[in-house]
Structure formats: structure tokens, C-alpha cells
Amino acid sequence: MHIELTRKSAVALTGQIVQSFRDRIDSGLLRPGEKLPSVRNLSAFLKISQVTVSKAYSELEEKGYIACTQGRGCFVAVPPEEAPAARPNPEDWQLALPDYLPRAQLWRHYNEGEGMYRFNTAAIQPALLPSAEIGRNIQRLIAEDPALLGTYGPFQGDGGLLRALARYLAERGIAAGPEELLVTSGSQQGIDLAARTFVGPGDTVYMEAPTYTGAIDVFASRGAKILTVPVDAEGMRTDLLTRLCDTHPPKVIYTIPTFHNPTGVTMSMRRRQELLEIARSYRCLIIEDDPFSDLYYGEAPPRSLKSMDREGHVIYLKSFSKVLSPGCRVACAAASGGLISRLTAAKATADLGSPLLPQKAVEPLLARRRYDTYMSGLRDAMAARCRLVTGLLKAHAPSSVSWSDPAGGLNLWLTLPAWVDSSTVYREALKRSIVLLPGAACYAAEPQRNHLRLSFTQMDEEELREGTMRLCRVLHDCLAREKAGPPSKPVF
Amino acid sequence: MHIELTRKSAVALTGQIVQSFRDRIDSGLLRPGEKLPSVRNLSAFLKISQVTVSKAYSELEEKGYIACTQGRGCFVAVPPEEAPAARPNPEDWQLALPDYLPRAQLWRHYNEGEGMYRFNTAAIQPALLPSAEIGRNIQRLIAEDPALLGTYGPFQGDGGLLRALARYLAERGIAAGPEELLVTSGSQQGIDLAARTFVGPGDTVYMEAPTYTGAIDVFASRGAKILTVPVDAEGMRTDLLTRLCDTHPPKVIYTIPTFHNPTGVTMSMRRRQELLEIARSYRCLIIEDDPFSDLYYGEAPPRSLKSMDREGHVIYLKSFSKVLSPGCRVACAAASGGLISRLTAAKATADLGSPLLPQKAVEPLLARRRYDTYMSGLRDAMAARCRLVTGLLKAHAPSSVSWSDPAGGLNLWLTLPAWVDSSTVYREALKRSIVLLPGAACYAAEPQRNHLRLSFTQMDEEELREGTMRLCRVLHDCLAREKAGPPSKPVF
């Protein structure tokens, strides 16, 4: 322990030592119960007499700062029961500091819960990703030009990547030039940039119910009035949306039309056209979040909203973060007219633009043939896992449990009997090392409590098999218990 | 050109072809002046008679959609002068779409202006940065574990980096454990996360005048009430701040106390203590932005506000982005008590956490000896450039121009005579391939218009010498012209 002693000070050495310890104890640097250095050691260390140290310790003990016991030494005094009130935590004022994070659930749900069998994040098992190839690209890029690490890139993104993204989109019917694209750190940042640019306190935002937790957090943090529209087998219920819009005109409609997260449902072409029609009549924006459309198991899904958008209503978010490299986090936003320059200004304000190296490293994988070959393999792997899980559920889950049958994507949506609260299953599963996402996290408004989201692509097949079997046992146990006991009611 | 023809339709084939072209022309898919396929080709392609195509083309020409010339073919009609009004741009509705970017100046100032002599960004010449070493770290990390690219990291940051940052801070008197730190994408994101967490519409934020443009953009985008406090040779005028706080209690005080951007001034210890005192009495936050404190030219600067903060008022932002690697963009926020978990929730909402690879690659450079050796070299280089520029200015700039004499950092603050608008100098300089930052960009409220910020560390010494000499000539010319002509007045 370093104590600054001034030998010429007006305060005696004893006093200086006492003050040092008082400061450390008051500030919490020394915590109750912590042992002080022995008299012998401290005097040797500070090069002063043992008597001076002893006197200082006695004074500290008298004043109640420390407690000394013969043979054991001196310890910072543990304050008596009422002490916390008497000596308040100096940081308590922070509790009265308002913030603008009314929700922020994603963080809790993805951070909480350690477990071997992780069904909670819609990520792909690292072994299936082209990390080796991207790694080689990075090594090559660095060897060619290490100064790449020493420069900022353009706010909008690396020119080469923007052109590759434009080609990728053109192949999918989206006519957006490189100047209409913005590179973002995953779709999460794309949603965030669109929201911070166009959504403010009281603005009406429509979302599907259920929807992606991270998007709810974003719009909630902007102070938006969030209205929710249920999803059925054809996607967002545009009939209900139309009626709601009469009384609450939208500023933004957020949708995941293809292999919807969390339900796996794909929006029909008819609904897609209706949605665009609504955007036209209300002159509002659609944020089309599309991380999964390349991950179809059978037929390719219907074309994107953006590809049918003639008047610039759609901000299209395409992420390659999940399917190529969560460690490079390359995604883009496509928007026409004056929207993209506003989003670029927001990107500059948020983080001065994305780093260059990951952008350049991912670019070669977007070349048509390379991408198609890779995706075709990935699709097969994802489809196999989906079949594996649904097969096991069919054979072993309780008969009262049902699940979606997605044609692509990474998620299954489990529905329990209406009287079962999925948070019970969540907690029970956690005890057996299974991490799930409780469906309630996916609702911006009043949640349905009897759902669970299962992301089936993070584990290898062996873990997935074992995890699903364990989950089936948990479901049987929970359902049996819930049935036996009194119906659980919320406590007010 | 693919046209969908329905032979059983009630509409004749001619009508269907006409409609197809009209749709394409109306939607802008076919643009004015674009050539249509020849009658022969289209009829062969659609497997219909040439007569049908001819009839369709005639009808389109009659209706003014296309213009045909014997021998040259048919072209989409170029609308006459008044046409743009008659056929409005389908994206015009976007102009009436409100956004929440009231300012966003940084983006404009850093994107605008191509020029060889770049004084506009406070970045360090890439050749001086340890990119080769970081590059080798990256190559090693990838070789050891390519799966690093395939996984998301913890929202708060990589554990190893957090511990290295905690050690770095402890060596500078800041007692923050790894759990009190958050990795951010540069300080820019740190400012942004702090603002989105704690600043909302109408909240009072104090900033220095002048200050960092990117920070103004952030607080303005949150709808904050921004009050500004002038800076003198001792830093922020705490006497004026105290008086303002009486009537406008602060929620946040944003400051760059050490080698202030743009003026280069360092806040005195007395003012630092006063600032903390103000934070205590008003129970508000201080955002201490500290990118430059290791870049001192002579004496080390006074200790940070954070190191003297006992009650958790200070959110301390430390960036290594500028001094180690703009391409890795590693920075951190240090905050105690419950603040850091709120900031981490904001980080998750913004981008799901920073990528792992750059964090791990930068970590070894933070080791005490390695960092000290490197910084000592960088300090010498920066000091030499500062001397070079100020020496040239002294010898060649007009006598009515003055500048700050910074003891560290990357910026000089030029003051022109009060009657000169620095935007004139900015434009004149641009013509001679010199890019400057007009001082007005650094004011959140009413700007002083006679300043320029010179960042002198982005070019090599040769360019810097030539750029400064050119700048001196521009200054002479502008001052001579302004003196000669009538005083320039704002036009209302």
C-alpha cells in the first residue's frame, strides 16, 4: 500500500497515516473486513518507526475506522446494522438520474443465463461460417497494406464494398446504386440509424407482434408510440394495420417480411403489395429488415418490398453479419432519394463510419458464384438442423405443444398451452443448462406469455439433439406440474 | 426486355404492350432518350407479329410517350421544359419527412473538400502509427483461431482488453475495475452512448465554446438544450458556468479538459476541482473526453477529473483510436456505480457490442512498457510538427493572425482579425488544395467567425511545410482583399 508522506508537513506523520486510511475507507477503496498491513510491514515499507504506525492504528481504532485483535491484526471495521444509513453510498445520487432506456431487453436476455445448450441467439455455429477464408483475406490485406489499419474510411463505407453490395442487390431485383447504400455494423445499427434519423418522441411506429427484441429496444429508446400488429401464416395482418392507420397515421412501419423473427413466417405477395400501398397513402417509411432471405430451405421466398418500391418508401436492411461473419459485422442499408444522405449523417454522428479492414475482407465473398456456392451449403445445413429439431419435437414433445414450420431462417416459434407461462419453462430449462428466449421478450406491447423462441443453428448437431431431448423433458415436467398445481396467477 | 403477355386477356395484345411501356416510362424504369427495341427484335422476342408491335409503338407515339424517327428507331420522349412539374419526382414526398438531425455538421465538414494539404481532421499520419505491429497481432490471432471471426463478443467488451484498460487507467490514477468499463467504437460512440442514455429533449447540456464538432452533433440530435461556456487560457470558464447553472441546472457537462479540441488549452487544476464541485452540487454528470492526454510535448498534464471523482459523477472517455489505430477504433468509457450497466444496455441497442478481433489485436499495445515506448516516440514526432507549423506561421503569417501554443494534442487554433470571416479563407484555401476546418463548426451556439482549426498531424513533414507556406500566402491574400474591399456583411 502506497502512502504519500511529507516529512516537512505541519501534520505529524501519525496524522498523515490516519488521514490516508480514513480517505481510503471513506471512499470505499478499503472495504469493511479488509486486512490492514501489519505494523511491522508498514513501518518497514514507509521507512518510519513501528511506534508511529502503532499510534496511527490506535487512533483509527478509537475513531471506529478499524478493529484490531491481538495476534490476528487490524481490519477495516464492519459497520453495525444501522451504519449504511449513517454513511450513505456516495454513488446513491445516480439512482435518481433519469435515463432514456425504457426497455433495453435484448441486453438482458442475451447476457443472462449460462448454459451448454444455447437456443437463445439467432446466430450460426462458428464452424459453419467462412471464417478461414475471411481470415485469409484479412491476412492478405494487411500484408499488402498495413496502413489500412491506420486510416479512417469514408462514412458511407468502402467504395469497393458498396459496389459489390449494389451488384448483390441488383441480382435480387433491387436497383440501388452504390450511392444509395450505407455500410452499417450489422442490421442492429441499421435499425438504430433509421430510428435516430426518423423516429422521435411520440412518432407512431408499427411493429409486428411478436418481433425482434433488439428492434423494440431501439424504437422504445426513441420515445416512439409503438403500435403492434399480429402476425398470421401470411405475415403481418395488413387488414388490422389499415384500420389502425386510420386513427394513428404511421411514421414508420418496421417489418421482417421474410422468415420472420421470431415466428419464421413469410409475408405473402398480396400483403407485401398492400403494405407498400399503405406506405404510399400515408407517405411513411417502411424499414424492411431482411437478414434471412438467402437462407431458404426449399423454394426461394417472394421478392423483397424494396424491389417493388418505386417511390422510395423502403429502407432496406441487409445483414451479412449472421451468415458470413459476426466478427466483421458487415451489413448495409439501401434507401433512395434523400434518405441515404440523412442516414449517412447519422452514421457519422454515431461512430464516424465503419472500419475498412472487415469491409474489404468480406467483399470477395459477395461475388455471385462464391456467395451462391457458400449459401447453398449453408442452406442445406440449416434445413437439416431444422428437420432434426422439428423431428425430435414431434416424437418427444408433449402433444399440447406446437411449433412453427419455417421455410427458412434460424428460428422456431414454440407455442405452449395458453395457461402455461413460458418464463417457468425458461427458468426450469436454465437449471438443466438450456438457454431459451422467452417469447414475452418479443412483444413491444402486451405479450403473449405462452411462447418460446428456439434458435436451432448455434450448436452442432450432437448438442442440438441432446439439447432438444432435454428440452422435451423439461416441457413434460413443466406441463405436468402446471396442470397439477393451482393455475399460476400474476401477483399484484 | 421482358413483357408479360396474356393471350387470353380481354385487353388486346397491342394494348398490353402499350400499357407495359407506359408503366415503365411512368415509373422511370425507361428514362427519357432511352432507345426502345426495334419492331423486328421485339416481335421476334415476344413471338407476335411485327404489325402488332408497330401498332403499339404508333399509339405510344401518338400519346407522346415515345418519339420515332425513320432509320434511327424509337426513343422514350424527352419531356418539354415544363414537364418536370407535370410529372413530379416520385420521391418528392421525402422532402416533407421530418428527421431528428438538426445539425450533423461533422459529416459535412469532413466529407467536403478534396485537397492535398489536409489540416481538417485531427488524425495522425498513418506512417507514424503501429499498424504493422497491430497487423501482425491480427494475423497471429487469426492463425490461432479463425473462429474469432465467427462469434459475437460480450456487449461490454473482450475480457482481456477490459483488464488491460483497467490497468492502463490505474497507472493514471483512475481506479476503475474491468466491470466499470465499456469498450466503444472510438470516443465518438462513447459520447453518443452517454448522450442517448442520459440526454433527452430539453435536458440541459453544457459544452465549451468552441468544442468538438462531433459532440455538438450528438447532443443536438438528442434535442438537448445546449448552453455554452467560453474557454480561456485555464480552460472552461467555471465562474460563468457556476452563474449559468443557477438558472439552468445541468444534466450533463461535456468537457475536453486536456489539450482541448479545438483550442489546445489545458484546464487548470483549480478549475478541475471547481467543475467536480459543480457536478456534486447539481448531481449531474460530467462527460470527460480525453483522447489527447498521453500526447503531451513537455510536462505531463494535470490528472484527469475522473481520477478525482469519488461520487461517480464522471463518465470518462478514453480513445486509442487516434493514437493507435483508426482502423481498429478501440476506445473505452469508464463509469462507476450503476452508470456502466446503463451504458452497456445502450451499446447493445446501438450495435450488439464491438467486434472481438480489433480488441484483441490492440490489447498487447496497452502493456505499460510497450505503450510508453511507443507514445514517447509519437510525442516527439507530434511536438516536432507543432514546432514546425508554429515556426512557419511566426515567420510567414500576417502579423494580425495569432494562434494557440498547445502543450499537447493535435490542433492549433488560429485567430484572424475580428472583421475576417474564416469561411472566406476556407474557400480560398480549398482552391489551392488546402483543407481547413472553419472555426464556426466548433460552436454549438452563436459562433465566432474569425477562427480556423489546424490539425497538423495528418501529413508528413514535407507536406506540412508546403501546406503551411501555402496557407500563409492564402492568409495574406485574404486579409489584403478584405481590407481593401467593403467589409463583408451577412445578407438577410
Structural features, described:
- The structure is a homodimer of 492-residue chains.
- An eight-stranded mixed sheet of chain A has the order 4-11-10-9-8-5-6-7, with helices on both faces. In chain A, strands 12-13-16-15 form a four-stranded antiparallel sheet. A two-stranded antiparallel ribbon of chain A has the order 1-2.
- Chain A is of the alpha/beta class.
- In chain A, helix 1 (13-26) crosses helix 3 (50-62).
- The mean pLDDT of chain A is 91.
- Chain A has three domains: 13-90, Arc Repressor Mutant, subunit A (Orthogonal Bundle), CATH 1.10.10.10; 105-124 and 372-484, Aspartate Aminotransferase, domain 1 (Alpha-Beta Complex); 128-371, Aspartate Aminotransferase, domain 2 (3-Layer(aba) Sandwich).
- The first copy, chain A, has 16 helices and 16 strands.
- The interface between A and B is large, with 86 and 87 residues.
- Chains A, B: Residues 11-79 form the HTH gntR-type domain.
- Chains A, B: Its cofactor is pyridoxal 5'-phosphate.
- Chains A, B: Belongs to the class-I pyridoxal-phosphate-dependent aminotransferase family.
